[in-house]
Design goal:
The structure holds 2 protein chains of 2 kinds.
Chain A lengths: L2 H15 L1 H23 L4 E7 L4 H12 L3 E6 L2 H9 L5 E5 L3 H6 L7 E3 L5 H28 L5 H14 L21 H19 L1 H10 L1 H7 L4 H29 L8 H25 L3 H18 L11 H7 L3 H13 L9 H26 L16
Parallel strand pairs in A: 1-2, 1-3
Antiparallel strand pairs in A: 3-4
Chain B lengths: L13 E10 L2 E11 L4 E5 L6 H9 L6 E6 L2 E2 L10 E4 L11 H11 L4 H14 L15 H11 L7 E5 L7 H16 L3 E6 L2 H7 L2 E6 L2 E6 L1 H8 L3 E8 L2 H9 L4 E6 L3 E6 L2 H15 L2 E8 L3 H9 L6
Parallel strand pairs in B: 3-8, 3-9, 6-7, 7-8
Antiparallel strand pairs in B: 1-2, 1-4, 4-5, 9-10, 11-13, 11-14, 12-13
The chains are: A mainly alpha, B alpha/beta.
Amino acid sequence: MTPLLAIAAASLRRVLRDRTALFFILVLPVVLMVIVGAVASGGQDFRIGVVERDTSAAAGALVKELADTPGLDVSRYRDAASLEISVARSDLDAGVVIPAGFGSAIRTGKPVVLQLMAEQANSTQQAAALRVRSVVASEGARVQAALFASRYGGSYAENEARARSLQIRTAAVGVVPETVKTTAATLPAGYEYSAPTELVLFVFLTAVASGATIVETRRLGMFERMSSAPVAPGTIILGSALTYVSIALVQSIILVAVGSLVFGVSWGDPLGAGALLLLWSLVGGSAGMVAGTLFRTPEQASAIGPVVGIALAMLGGCMWPLSIVSPTMREIGHVTPQAWAVDAWTALLARHATLTGIGGELGVLALFATLFFALSTIRLRASVSGSPFRRHASTRAVRP
Amino acid sequence: MLQVGRQESSGYVLECEGLAKSFGDRRAVEGVGFRIAPGEIYGLLGPNGAGKTTTMKMICGLLRPDRGSITIAGRQAIGNIDVRGLVGYVPQDVALYPDLSARENLQFIGRLYRLDRRTLAERVAEALALTELTERAGDRLDAYSGGMRRRLNIAAGLLNHPRLLILDEPTVGVDPQSRHAILERVQAFGRDGLAVVYTTHYMEEAERVCDRVGIIDHGRLIAEGTRRELVAELGEHDSIELEASGNLDRLAEVCRSVPGVSTAAAADHSVQIVTEDGRSILPAVLEAADRSGCAVTSVDVTEPDLEAVFLHLTGTALRE
């Protein structure tokens, strides 16, 4: 085994023996991926509030139709005022008020107006309102059919029931959703949001926290020990970097595998995703090396590293899409490598970009990795080439 | 500078000349030079901050000297990574991974020296046996006592079968039993033909294990030689105090006739003898006392030690 591999293997062995580190590297990211994915995908049903001012069967049938419609979660409200407040607070995605006399009006073919509440600027509420309209339209078509049939015989109730049964027996027009080229600036909801952002967050976080191991290696005098052997400083630095880049890469691959196999996440163009994973591992590994040379104690690295990692993740759009923050904050966010990585994942997952389509983001990430490696090399070289980097005993002499 | 015990340059394992190193404005080492022959244990004595560790690090290749030259086994060492394979370095603090076992640590260090698999296995077993840690080889280091870690730290410096072994204060913080074991091992290294540089600020250790001593202070080598040579340069003598009963004047007179005794004088219950070398003439003195008819009840030999030499040369106590 060459000294390079020996250095990497020894560090890797130490990490694999550290159960706490393994928990943070492997278990916690998957757990958080599940939680955030579930939260992000849990809001698929539109919450609809209904006020029934009419007690007719027709009003009841409309409410039942709304409640039975997949994707709508219906709750009843006593009055329109409280319904409006709930819509305004976004406790509801839309509100429907069924006016008094609704049943008798539609039986006699008179126009009737349903009040539908939704904020104009709220895209979710507008989508919910659209869904309600489609249910009302469907119900209206049945009413019209029953009214029309009643002119030629039979009661309205009989014809309405017949129209309903015909409506059910008529083969529905199948709709297969197909994603088209979009200019979406955010990742899709659900696990396709949580998986890539958790990956970006945790690979970096783990790498920065693993700087503690480098600090400890430095403090133990192991870099000195290695340097006293016939091993070039560059080999020592590369061997150390290899460990942390490997850990970041393995962690990325595990998260991608769990995302794909367990949560059905599609990671987009394989070449683009592979290049992004590799570059992000290089960014994470090199950032860990920087942390290892900047912090004085392992405790500092363990305490400050994750805080810095989470702060950068927040700025970089791992916690929420940068499309919802102000343009200034978006620009500040792009000072972090996380923002470029999330942009690249967004391009791959939401816009189905290929390797060339994320070339710009990959280039910036490569620059970050180069910068971090250069900085850590300068700092570590000072350490391994023997400048008084380590803590030494007191140099005080006593004069009698 | 006192310069005693010079040897020919040929055959030296280590030759340092005019070494100098500064950190910013602070001169850590200035003009240090010495040579060490195979099998010789050379003690580098000095208080903390005197420049011992900086000198060691320059020899190991961990620091590049600002000036001077270092030759190891006839090869120029500065900037020559390959020469490091001839040197075994035992740093002051235990430099091993606490969460790896002794065997894993030694295997890792052996691989740094590019030992092939078979040689590595042999050397690791040898090092473990040497330090009597074979039975605990699979235990993690954080389960070891301080003394065991120190011993392993030394073993790690021997894996490459060095020509020159550098021991930087290897007994600091070690219990007396482990210290004794370490010092015996160091003496054995010398007998095995290994050249050893040994830094310490424990004077009795230097006196016990070192063939020659260099005294370093404020970055300069201010004296060098065997203990006896250094003491002789100081101009001080050994003294022997004989506590005895009987005619003490007669006893003093007989002692004065022993070759090597400078003076002998009777006091209340003892005779005070001044000599060049107390240990070597002690049997003759006791024989003379027997001839005088006095009954000797106790003997105390006092020798000027390196502590006195150091104090004389630097005006500073060696130990804090």
